[in-house]
Amino acid sequence: MPHTVYNDLQKSDTKIKKTKILEALESENLSVQFSDALDNEMVLNMGPQHPATHGVLRLLISLDGETIMKCIPELGYLHRGYEKLSEACTYHEFIPHTDRLDYLSPMANNVAYALAVEKLIDLEIPERGKYIRVIIAELARIQSHLLAVGALLMDVGAVTPFLWAIREREKILDLYDVICGARFTTSYTRIGGVAQDVSDEALAGIKNFIDEFEANLGDMRALVERNKIFIIRCENIGYLSKEDCIDLGLTGPLLRACGIERDLRRSEPYLVYDKLDFNVPVYTESDCLARYYVRVDELKESVKILKQCVEKIPSGSHNALQSKKVLPQKERIYTKMEELIHDFMIINFGVNPPVRESYAAIEASKGELGFYMISDGSGHPFRMKIRSPSFSNLQALAPMMKGCLISDTVVIIGSVDPVMGEADK
Amino acid sequence: MNKEITELIRSKLSGFQIEYTDVNGTPAIYIPEKDILAVCEILKNDESLKYNSMVDAVSVDRFEKKNRFEMIYNLLSIDNNRRLFIKIKLDSKKPEMESLSGIWGSANWYEREAYDMMGIHFRNHPDLRRMYMPEEFEYHPLRKDFPLMGIPDSIPLPNK
Hints:
A: 12% strand; B: 27% strand
């Protein structure tokens, strides 16, 4: 049959063809006229094993001399299939997996996930639980921004501020150790509250930390902010217009650096953010320097929020009183029959939400982190979509890089601050 | 609040066959596949609606005989601080729809992800490649008939 022969021919043809990614790179007319014999175009592969790409991001860059003509980001080197895995986990079982999404601020992911499930099952948690969640979410923001700022500075050549940022970050990890018993993979929130109450020792530790933090941050900023090399390397680099930022669905510091005051803590308040006093820093330049300043200013605002939370945190229960949905306290499981049964049911069959769909998002350090959940009434999510800010923000990488020099790539990647665990899911 | 927005959208989209629903408190609409581009143009450009940003796209495999696949787009109006979910039911045998990347630029990667994970084809998409999986991979892992443990030998290993 001629039809099948043609198909076979096509199949063998594709094997000889170049890979699709190279095709995509060459697809657009590069609109460069090669009049000089020395002019030529070169394709450079950057990553996935490159220290400046902050993980396993791979970029294919076509260059004219040192100028970037086109850039294609390639994802998937850290794809672990969390959306598929979630369909085989109960809602509680998935909490440890959220640590591994944005592994630079695991606490924020825990909070986002717990809030999304609670919206799905209509559960309100007590005030103390809400305050604890705000505290850990803000600590996570400081933790993530410190690394983002420090790594950006190291990418432009300043090593000392990076070490100073890491020193501060280390203190937050130690605080996590006191709060939940782990430094990196925290898994601290539970559906309906948190795993355990914060001790007075932990609150005192947070207070100590924020007292010292502002001075230490000031020291770090003083090293670089009047430094000519730093400013020249960041100013007007990686510009993206306001319209493009909206069109590409950017969120977080990238959006606020282009002049749009949008912060989910303010525009769609969750937890107790409507009772707290804080500013949303906005810059209009939309370049790497503006993104740096947004992050640094947000660090100060986070400290302000933490101060209020440590003062205002009420006493009382940290977990919601809903025995069919919330895991009981460990000591009660071993002594009370009722709690033992509930624990058994929740662990084995999960919380059974009504048949419905739900979307909840929080302002994580990198932007809007949301979970779209579809429940079919069983203990497992029927479908769970993770709206990860890094994935959306990476889409802006190509337009930002157009026309920049090859040495600017590291600065632009640093200013976007992608975490591949989250982008690849 | 929600009712007002639904009424507003209803008045703007009176010419189309649209089903109004909600996603746990957020307005949502079902749009027939053939009208998708015309409706989205109105949603984006109308002065009182102005859904100028798309922040997410969810592909769903309902695993039903009719209209097995579905796309859910998460629209955001930054000026009005409003959200809207638009849903498009797709065919079971051959899930295919018009790409929205001409209207919202962010749809480019979201649709690539949906194509990779769920096997939904987008007509007139500028660059429909796989997002996460290797190019040689034949399956679409988020479909309900794809086993959780994967399919042996579906990804060729490099020769030693």
